[in-house]
Amino acid sequence: MRKQQLRFFALPAVLLVAAFVPAAHAQSGTQTTVLTNPGGPEFSVDGATYFNAMSAFWPVGSQHTLSVPQGVGFSYNRTFDTQWQFTQWTWANGSSSEPTVQVIGNVGSTRFTAQFNVQYQFSTAVACNPSPCSSVPGTITVNGSNATAAPIWVSAATSEALLPVSNPGWIFAGWQIGGSVVSLYQPYTAVVNGPTTATAIFNAAKPVTLATNPPNLTFYADGTLMTYNAFTNQPQTLDWGVGTSHMVSGLNLTNDDTGKRWVFSSFSDGGSQTHTYVVGNNTSPQTLTCNYAPAAYPFFITSPPNLALVVDQQVLPPPYSYIWGVGSTHTVTASSPVADSHGVQWIFQSWDDGVTSPTRTVVIPVGADINGFRMTALYSQQGKVTVNSTISGQAVTVNGSTCTTPCSLTLSPGAQVHVSAPASVPMGAGSRQSLLGWSNGSGAPVAGDWVGTLNTASLSLTATYHLMNSLSANASPTKGASWRLSPSSADGYYDSQTKVSIRVSARPGYRFNGWAGDLSGTDPSASLSMNIPHSVTAMMAGSPVLRRGGVTNGAGGGSIAGVAPGSVASIYGENLASQSAAAPASRLAKTLAGVTVHIGARTLPLYFASPEQINFQIPSDLPLGNHSLTLSSEGMPDVTADFSVVRNAPGLFPVVLDGQTYAMAVHEDGTPVSGASPARQGELITVYATGLGPTDRVRPEALAIPATPRFLLLDPVTIQAGEAVFSPESSFAAPGQAGVDAVQFRLDSSAPSGISVPFYLTVNGVKSNTLAIPIQ
To answer: Which pLDDT band holds residue 559 (cuts at 50, 70, 90)?
Structure first.
C-alpha cells in the first residue's frame, strides 16, 4: 500500500497566532485601536493611510491588514528634521517585525502598535555680534571633531559635547538654542530631544587695558586679580568682546612695592567700587583705570570718651578709627543727647575747631596720610530727673508737660524743675490717696509742688501719697445727736493709720439708744481704726422736752405772763408727739397723736398736736393762780410744766397774707382784711383773739360756742390802731369756735391809714401782742 505523504506549509506568525484564537459568535465584536509609538509616522489599516491613532469596531474573526509603507526604512515628518525607523508590530498576545501583518479581530487583542526608533537632525552654526560678520568668527567641535556643514541624525536623548574655537579678532560670547542663550561657558553639552541647532555666538573682540593709578597696583576683573606684567611693568591688556559686560572691583586697601598703603578712590568710567563694566560698541582700544588714594588714618573721639557717633550713616561702637583715602568725603554726626555706659546723659556742644553743628561733612585733606587727622566732639553733662509716685502709673506734671510715672527727662545743669501731682486720687468708694508731698530721698515729703534747680547729675523725686479712708457719722434722726470726734477732720477722711475716738451726745428731746453700722453696743463712746472706710449711725430715741416759757397764750403773748380761763394755750418743745394731728373746730379731742394733757386727773381738750407744739384749751372754771400740767406722749416719758392762770391774758391771732403778717380781721362781708383789701372807715371790722376774759355764760368745755345766744365778754376792751383809740361795738366768744374771742368795731376819721398800722387790744389794763392792720 502506498503511503500518503503529508505536506506542511509555512504560515506567517500572525496567522499562526490567529489560527488558535477561538471563533466568536457571529454577532460579537470589539473596539480596536491601531497607533504608532512614538506618534507621527505613517501607517495603513486595510489600505487606508493614517498619521494618528485610529479606532474601529472589528467583528470577532474579521481579517485586517496593518502595514508600514516604508517597510524597515525611515519615515520622515513633513519638515524632514525628524525620522522614524520601524522595529516591530506589538499587541497583547504577540509581536512581529514584518512591516505588513494580517490580524484577526479578537477580544483578547484590541490594541496594535507599530514601534519606531526616533532620530532628530542636529546641526551647529556660528553667529557674530555685531552682525553681519566681517569675517568667520570661529568654528565648533562636536564630540572632539570639527562640526560638519550638513546636519546629522542622532537618536533621542543623545548628548553632544560642544566647544567653540574663536578666530583672531573674535571672542566667544555664549551658546544659543532655539533663540535663547543657554550658556555663557565655552564647553557645553547639548541633549538632543528634538530637532536642534546649537549656535555659537562670537563678539568682535577689541583690546581693553586694565590699569591702576598710581601704577603697579591691583584690582579684580571677572573674579581675576589684574596685576602689572612683572617683566614689562605694564598693565594687562585683554581681548574683550564689543558690548560685553564684565564685573570689576577695586580693593579696599592695597600696598605698593614700597609698602605704602592705598585705598580705593574711583574708576575711570565713573562706576562704583564694584560694578559692571560694559565694553564699547566699536573696535577702538580702550582703557579702564582703577584710581587709588593715599591711605590716611582719621581718628574721631569724644570728650568725655566713648560716646556714640554716627559715621557715614552707620552707628558703630567706639573707638572710631578708619582707613580712608586722601580727598575722600565722609559724614560724621555727634549724637545728642547721648548716654554713657553709666546712663549719664550728655549734650553735644561743639567740635574742637569751634563748629557747633553736630553733623560735619569731612574731606580728608592732603597730607593726612603722613600727618594724620583727628576730630573731637565736645559734650557737656546733662542732669537726669526721674519722677516716681507711690501710686503706680500716676500722671504728674513736669515743667508743664504730663508724664506717667515712672518717667524721666534730661535737662541742662542749672535748669529749673517744677513738678506737681494731683492733691488726691480716688481709690474706690470711701477711699482716696492724698498727696503728702514730694520727697527726694532724704527727709520728710515737702507739701505742694516741688520747685528747684537741677544742680546734680541725677535727681529723683517721688510723689508720696498716703491712703485716706472716710468716716461717715450720722444720727437717726439727724437732729437727735451732737458729735465729738478726735482727731477731727474737715471732710471726714482720715489717714489709714489713724485711730478715731468717737463720742455722741443726745440733744434736748432725745436719748441715745445704741449704734448701727460699723459700731455696736450702747456705750456712747467708742473708737475705730481707719484702715478701711467706716460708717456709723447713732440711733436716737425721742424724749419730750419743753422749751423755756412752758405754757403760753395760743395766739401770742401780751404784756403779762399767764393764760386766761377758757382761752387757747400752747406748749412748745421737742418730741412732744410722734406726728402731727388736728381736732375738728366743733369738738376738741382729749387725745391727739397719742398725746394727752392733764391737770391732775383732769384731761384738757386738744386743738392740735405735733412734735414741737401742743395747742389745748384752758378750762373756764380753772381757778386763778399757779398750776402744773402733765404732758403724756405714747411710748415716751411724761413731762410737766408750771403755769399761771390770770383773768385777762389777751392775744391777737396772726395771719399771713401776701407774705405779710397781719392781725386776723375780716370785713363785714366776712372776707379777710389784707393789704389788697384794707379796712375802711365806717365799716364794721371783726378781729379775733383769745384770753380776753370771762363771758356772761360759762363757756362749754371742748365744744364750739353756739351761734345764739351770744356769750358776751364781761370785761371792757379798748382798741388802738396807731395813735387812734376805739371802743368796740361788741365783744363776745366767737360762735363755731372753742376758746376764740371776737371784737367788732368801726373806724372813724381819727384812724390812720397805711399798709401796716400797729394794732393791739387792751383788757383791764393788760395789753395784747401788737400786729399790723392795713387801713385805707
So the answer is: low
Report d(CA 453, CA 168) in Å as an integer.
87
* Cα–Cα distance, 710 to 693 (Å, whole number): 15
User: Do 219 and 251 form a contact (C-beta atoms < 8 A)?
Assistant: yes
DSSP β-ladder status, 329-334 and 314-316: unpaired
Report the distance separating Cα 599 and Cα 636, nearest Å.
18
SS3 152: strand
Terminal Cα-to-Cα distance of the chain (whole angstroms): 193
* Radius of gyration from C-alpha coordinates of the chain: 67
Secondary structure class of 159 (helix, strand, coil): strand
Give me the phi and psi of 479, to 5 degrees please.
Answer: -80, 5
Asked if 291 and 214 touch (Cβ cutoff 8 Å), the reply is: no
Q: What is the pLDDT of residue 558?
A: 66
DSSP character string of 246-260: EEEEE-SEEE-TTS-
Structure confidence at residue 21 (pLDDT): 37
Cβ atoms of residues 705 and 736 within 8 Å: yes
pTM strictly above 0.85: no
Which tens digit of pLDDT belongs to each residue from 142-191? Answer: 999 999 888 999 998 999 999 999 998 899 989 999 889 999 899 999 99
**How far from chain centre, in Å, is Cα 3?**
120
Q: Quick one: pLDDT at residue 423?
A: 93
CB–CB of 273/264 below 8 Å? Answer: yes
Alpha carbon distance 422, 162 (integer Å): 89
List all residues 6 or more positions away from 324 whose beta carbon is below 8 Å from its beta carbon: 263, 295, 296, 297, 298, 330, 364
pLDDT value of position 83 = 86
Q: Decide if 206 contacts 242 (C-beta within 8 A).
A: yes
Rounded to whole angstroms, how far apart are CA atoms 23 and 419?
Answer: 115
319-340 burial: b if 16+ Cβ within 10 Å, else e: ebebebbbebeeebbbbbebeb
CA angle 723, 729, 733 (to 5 degrees): 105
Residue 383's Cβ-side half-sphere holds a number of Cα atoms within 13 Å equal to: 18
Angstrom distance (rounded) from CA 768 to CA 477 = 38
Comparing CA positions, the residue from 222, 181, 221 lying closest to residue 203 is: 181
Rounded alpha-carbon distances, angstroms, from residue 141 to 124, 126, 186, 590: 9, 12, 11, 148
**What span, in angstroms and rounded, lies between the C-alpha atoms of 333 and 243?**
43
Cis preceding linkage at 650, omega within 30: no
CA pair distance 611, 628, nearest whole angstrom? 21
C-alpha cell at 366: 592732603
Per-residue b/e over 429-460, b at no fewer than 16 CB within 10 Å? ebbbbebbbbbeeeeebbeeebeeebeeeebe
Q: How far is residue 138 CA from its own chain's centroid?
A: 75
- SS3 category, 19: helix
Cell numbers describing residue 385: 530727673
Q: Distance of alpha carbon 452 from its chain centroid, rounded?
A: 35
